[in-house]
Structure formats: structure tokens, C-alpha cells
Amino acid sequence: MADPKGFLTTGREVAKTRPVGERVKDWNEVYVPGSLLPIISKQAGRCMDCGIPFCHNGCPLGNLIPEWNDYAYREDWQAASERLHATNNFPEFTGRLCPAPCESACVLGINQPAVTIKNVEVSIIDKAWDTGDVRPQAPERLSGKTVAVIGSGPAGLAAAQQLTRAGHTVAVYERADRIGGLLRYGIPEFKMEKVHINRRIEQMRAEGTKFRTEVEIGRDIDAAKLRKRYDAVVIAAGATVSRDLPVPGRELNGIHFAMEYLPLSNKVQEGDFVTPPITAEGKHVVVIGGGDTGADCVGTAHRQGAASVTQLEIMPRPGDERNPGQPWPTFPMLYKVTSAHEEGGERVYSVSTTHFEGDEDGNVQSLHLAEVEFVDGKLTQKPGTERSIPAQLVTLAMGFTGTDQANGLVQQFGLELDERGNVARDADFATNVDGVFVAGDAGRGQSLIVWAIAEGRSAARGVDRYLTGASDLPAPIRPTDRALTV
Question: pTM above the 0.70 mark?
């Protein structure tokens, strides 16, 4: 145990954010650079090194949290990095983007603020990059087997890296023009600068992984032909079909899915555009959806100079503290104030959009909404609560409904789907097609980045065993595992 009295003598302290007036003028990460290292060792010392560390259960990767907390407390950064990488291929991604179910399951969190596990994690990996402790791990020998990975999000990259290190020759196919999937184009720069993706890609290239961009399996290459070309295939194409809002006026100009809007602002940062084709500048912006993607739209609109930003959520406002129906160590639904919400705008709960109105040119101008409430377990509109708000740009951030079937990938492979429209798989993450496996949201449905990485690692074990008859690769989860919730 690092500091036997740390949880008693040290209070929780998190990373400092830059002033709002400063950060909304750029696209850099919102945190003050270097603000964690002076405090993080003491924060790691708050870990109680529990006999049964429930943070392991909260994290699907099974991260060795008490161990690397201990090393971080002692400032043994090299050992901390080794323990961190033992279970997680990309801790710089999860340390920035994961909502930290590990912290919700922290034993200290029963009656005190939990350990800042996420901040400790990102401090360790950033220090490892700075000191050169993150190096390519090329395989000692090649197996002679080839694997195609479809999709370069966190699940695809994790599977590819594990299989490359096991000695297989791996090629990652990505339909976008750059590697990273939603990490690249769905996450704004102010949440994670893309340098973190770029250097991991270079590490993977040095290990032997090949990357093929602007190739969509199903359209550019027939899926059945791809299967014949490789000894195994991993489908990690994500759940990219956005949930729509079929109400009158949906066809008006200025109403876009979040994943139509967000990638364009990222492309500006990549140098593809001077100004994005879809911009919030000078407009009244309405974001429909109260989750993380909605918050990303809010922060992006602020930086583009929106006249106003309103975020709508159909569900009631969550509470500030756990309610009895969501006891420790489950992941609770709490009122969450992200960095984007700190920057301004209005959040409206328990409302539903009834229709949109536009001008004579077909451009959206207003959104009509009504309050809703639960009646006999169903959301019902409250009479007399209808009103309209100005809306010149509307982004739909209501989640995703499944993997893309329009490109022909599912049909060409002949894949079976489960009752939720996800690609069905067995205990080894194998589909009904011999040699074809599925990892990430394509098989699980919309989920978190930490689950995607865990899926990629677990599917890699299934592929390795299929190719060689046995595998020493870790499999942190089963396809049927679910988050610790109620």
C-alpha cells in the first residue's frame, strides 16, 4: 500500500482546466498542460489497495489499478507504465475519453470522493511518452498467417496490435481518409488532440501493422473476396448508423446528424478545410441528445462562434448524487457537467421535439418542443407545454442503432444478426462465417471506448486460437459480459 493514511489525509484533486474565455478561442485540450504531475503522486496515494479492488470489476479491461497507483505514488513511472500497458493498449485514449466506471466502483467512493484513477492513468502514459518508455514491440517471429481488420476505431486498433504482436501479418482497412475511426473524426480536438492517435499509429506501423485508408469493404472490395485473400477477418466497423428523428420538417436544410457535423470541424484541424462546410458561426444552435456526443456538439458550436446553444434531452435531469436504485459499485446516472457545458449554453430536460419550421428557402429556423413526463411507464407529452425556440443549426446526437448494412458488408459476408441488429458471435467472438470474427460496437452495440478496447483484445485471442490452435493472448471479457449497472 502506497500511503496507508492517504485516503484520510489527502482530498480529491483533479486536473485543472484552462479559463473558459481562453480555451473557446482554440481547439487545444481544455486542461492546463502539466497541471497533473505536481499533484498526481499524492492523488495515487489515496488508493487503499483494497483486498478486493472493485475498480477491476468496474473496468472491463481489468486494469491493475492498485498496482500502478502504487508505482505512481512512488514516482516509478517506468514500472507504472509497464503495469498500465499490461491490460490496455491505449491508456492515453481511455485516460482522456472514458467516463471512468472504475471510479464509480472505487471502494473509497462508498463514503468519500473516489480516487482520481483516470487522471493517474493519463499522467502515467503521458510521462511514458515523454521519457521514451513507449516503444514498438515487434514479434520475434512471424506465423505466416494473415488477418484483415475492418475498421480502425479502438476495437480494430486493439485487435490489430494484439495480433501483430502475436506474429500474424495484419492489415487494417479504414473507409475514411485517415486512421482512427470515431477517435479521429467523432472526438473533437479539445477532448483529445490527434497527436495521441498519430504516435500510436506510428508505433503500430513500426511493429508491422499495415494500414489501408479510403477502402470501404462492401463497396470498394467485395467482402467475400476479402475473406478469400486472408486467413481470418475481424469486423470492427462500429455501430455507425445514427438514430434519426422522423418529425415534420426533418428534411429542412441545417438539420444534421452529429457525425455529419463533428468530423468537418476535425477536418479543419487536419488542414483539409479553412472553414467547415457546416458551421455554427452566428447561428442559434440546438443539440438534440444529452449524452457525450451531444456535449461534443455543444463545445464545437461554442468554438465556432454560435449565437446561442441549447441542448435538449428527453429524459428527466439526473440527480447530483447516487439514488438508492443505483448503489455502489454500479455505474450511476448522475448530472454531469462536462467542459463543454462549463463554456455556456442552456440544457433543457424532459422535452421532446414535435416539429421544425423553416423559411421560404427551406432552411430550418425554429424547433417546436413540448414537455414530457412518465405516465404508466411511458413518456407522454404534457398538454399546454408546447413552445418554439430559434434553431438555425440542429444536430441530432441521439445515439446509434447498429452497424452499417447499406454498404453490403453484412450481406456479402452472409453474416447473421442478433435481435438488436448487431453482428452475432459465439464465445470466441466468431461469427457464423468461418474465419470471420467481430469486435466492438458492431457486435456489442453502442458502447464505451474501454469496452471497445476490451472487445478488440478478446477477439484477438479468438482469432489467434483459430489460426494456431492455441493462444496466450489475454481475453478480458466475454461477448455476453455487460457493464456493472442496474
Answer: yes
